[in-house]
Structure formats: C-alpha cells, structure tokens
Amino acid sequence: MKKIICVGLVFLSLSACFAKVKTVFDKSKAVKDSGAVEMTQTAANEFVLAMGAGWNLGNTLDATGRKGLSAETSWGMPKTTQQMINGLSSAGIKTIRIPVSWTSHILDDKYTIDPEWMNRVKEIVDWAIEDGMYVILNTHHDNFTNAVGLKPGRGYYPNKANYDLSAAYFANVWTQIALAFNKGYDEHLIFETMNEPRLRNTNVEWVYSSTDEQTREAQEMLNKLNQVCLDAIRGSKGNNAKRFVMVPGYAATPNAVLSNEFILPKEKIPGRIIVAVHMYTPYIFAGQSPGATEFTSKMAYEYAGTFKKLNEKFVQNGIGVVIGEYGAVNKNNLDQRLAYFHSYLKQAKKYNLAACLWDNGQWQVKEGTKDYAEKFGYYNRKEQTWYFPEILEAIVEESN
Questions:
Q1: 38 assigned to active site
Q2: Residue 295 to residues 11, 20, 355, 357, 373: CA-CA distances in angstroms?
Q3: What is the chain's mean pLDDT, rounded?
Q4: pTM for this structure?
C-alpha cells in the first residue's frame, strides 16, 4: 500500500492524507445490488429524530460461535424470521440495528465474503425495509483479540503496528457490503463503520483517555480507519454517495468522540456523517452485576450531562448523534427500570439523540441469586411478545 505522509493534519485535509487501499477480494463471488430507488437528503438532525425508537438484533448475525449460516443461532438466539421483524414494527419500533460479524464468513486471505452469508444479511435487512423501518448495518465482532497475530481476513486491531492489515480488511469488507447494498436502498438504510473498536486484552480496553499514549494512538488509527471505510462506501457511488454513515470513536465511548483527538472523516457532500456512541449509563445501575438496583435522580445527571456535551459539539453543528446501544439489565426491579427508561429517553430526545436498545435475548434472573450479568432481554422473538411490555411502552412513548 502506498503511503502518504502529512504534516499539520486538519479536518478538511484528512482524506487527502491517505492513499486508497487496494481491494483484492474475489469479485466473481460478490453479491451485487440490482435495485433502483430514489435517495433523498434529509438534514442530519431531522433524520435522527425520525429514527425514533430503536432496537438491536443482538447475539444473532453478530454471533461468532460457528461458520456458515448456522452462526446466526450459535449464541442461543432463534433463527430470525419475517414475523419477528413484523412484530417489532407493529410494536412501534422504528429503527433496527443489525449487528453483523463478518470474519467468520470470509472465505480466503483476500477478504472474500461468503455470498450465502451476504444474501442472508440482505434478506433480514429487506424485511425491515419492507416494514418501513430504518436499518443500521455494521461490522461488529471483527476487532481481533490481540495486538499480535493478526492475519489477512481475521479482522482489525486499531494500533500502528496493525494499521495496514486493518485498513485492507475494512476496504475489502466495506466495498463488498456497498456492492450488495446500494441503489436498491434509500435513506432508510444506514451504514455503521465498526462497533466498539478498541485495544482488546489491554488494561485500557474500555477506557479512553487523552493522556494515555495507547488510546491516543488507537484513536489516531481509528480516524484513519473510519476514513478508509467511508471511502469504500462512497467509492461505490449510486445511493451510497449520499447515504448516512455512522462512525464511532475509541470503544464507542462518549469520552473519545468528545476529545480533541477524534476527527470526523472528510466528506465531499457535507452533513452525511452521524457520530455513534454507546451509553450504558450509569453503569452501576444499567449494566453492573449486582451493582445498584435503585434508580435515583442523581444518576440522571451523568447521562444528561453527556447528552448535553454531545449536542453542543455535534448536533448544534449539524452532525447527527445516535446511541447505538443502551439498556438496563433486569435486576427484578421493573419499577426502577421504568423510571430509568422514561428519564434516559426523555433526556436523549431533548438533546436530539436517537437510541437503540440492546437486546441479547437473556432476561431471566436465576431464583435466589443476584446474578444480573448481561440480562438485556426484552423481546420474545419466538412469540413476538415483550417480557416487560411496560418498558416497551416507555420506549415508544419517549422516543417516537
């Protein structure tokens, strides 16, 4: 890969500082979109508000337990059906985030994606589009496990030593996704470059700090990798030239995107980027096991303050912000969770942020225990009912 050295890098010159990454995948196996629909250009903030109540198809297409089509159910979730998607739409969910892991479905060291897998992803996306939903499609569990050992097709790792292999991964994977999803999809389809990109298996895996050399370097690489992803998407032209693309900072933390080190990728058409963050906030209530079971008004200051900062830095400058994942684990505290969801989403909407509930299907707490870890289940996909219908009502009421 040809390298270009830049001095005095600034926002407007970011794209020009990186040479285009070569794609080498087997084009004969690429799935190509043959549709033709009109693409509109809604302003980012107006677009984000229209996304309304969001939900994640968690632990499904992102599961990495097996290769091939059986990977979809390898983490215990049922096979996705059109009835499941219809049930979400009829319940008032307007946006579905579809996390997809691609590394288990790459056929060779040239990053060729299994066409059977791509077509399965398209099938589920199409069901949601047919229901008039917004769809966020991403690359999910493709962050390699360690700083050493990365090989072609095994994913990415956001440090300088692994930059070339990471850039090649994203250029090839996003070029293939962009071929499969283009003119047949209007603005209801959104691309998200990556999910929670971080230095896995390090002591800074989940914490971004501007004073930490490792995470600063990682964010620098992620700025470049977000640009590589965007260039691959825009390079496919058609509707993808104008499609909204979500980009995260380090580990998808608000601290990273609010830092001076975070740089948005350069665009030919301004206003088509959405900043992606994840916020299980405050974690002691929303995610920690056992943590705290009672939601207090004091807790609301933590997320409300972050929402305000995101609004001031991005929303007020015409850049959309979407909380790609949020939620509160079941601690047998329904009344407290209801108070949390009403408060959290009311504040998010106040600051013009959309939010997508993380749902991994796990909701039952074993009797006699306080093991609440990962109890982020809400939607009964087999029955198209909700384990906590009151929470659904709160989400729809505050988001739509």
A1: no
A2: 40, 49, 19, 18, 17
A3: 94
A4: 0.95
User: Quick check: 398 and 347 in contact, CB under 8 A?
Assistant: no
CA distances from 373 to 216, 289, 328, 331, 363 (A): 30, 5, 10, 9, 10
Distance separating alpha carbons of residues 168 and 73, to the nearest angstrom: 29
- And the tokens for 263? 């740089």
Q: How confident is the model at residue 20 (pLDDT cuts 50, 70, 90)?
A: confident
Distance CA 334, CA 241 (A): 44
| Strand-pair partners of 322 | 276, 354
DSSP assignment of 174-216 equals: HHHHHHHSSTT--TTEEEE--SS---TTSTTTT---TT-HHHH
The active-site residue, picked from 196, 220, 261, 398, is 196
- For the ranges 2-16, 114-128, 143-157, 210-224, the lowest mean pLDDT is seen at 2-16
Separation between Cα atoms, residue 117 and residue 67, nearest integer Å? 10
Helices (H), the chain: 44-51, 82-90, 115-130, 163-180, 213-235, 254-257, 283-286, 297-313, 334-350, 389-399
Which SS3 state, helix, strand or coil, does residue 5 take?
coil
What's the pLDDT tens digit per position in 316-346? 999 999 999 999 999 999 999 999 999 999 9
294 has catalytic annotation:
no
Between the CA of residue 311 and those of 318, 325, 341, 342, 351, what are the distances in Å? 10, 17, 20, 19, 6
Write out the two tokens for 108. 């060779």
Distance CA 150, CA 281 (A): 33
Q: What is the 3-state secondary structure (H, E, C) of 320-371?
A: EEEEEEECCCCCCCHHHHHHHHHHHHHHHHHCCCEEEECCCCCCCCCCCCCC
pLDDT of res. 10: 31
Query: Which position among 187, 192, 325, 398 bears the catalytic label?
Result: 325
Query: pLDDT tens digits, residue range 335-389?
Result: 999 999 999 999 999 999 999 999 999 999 999 999 999 999 999 999 999 999 9
266-276: per-residue pLDDT in tens? Answer: 999 999 999 99
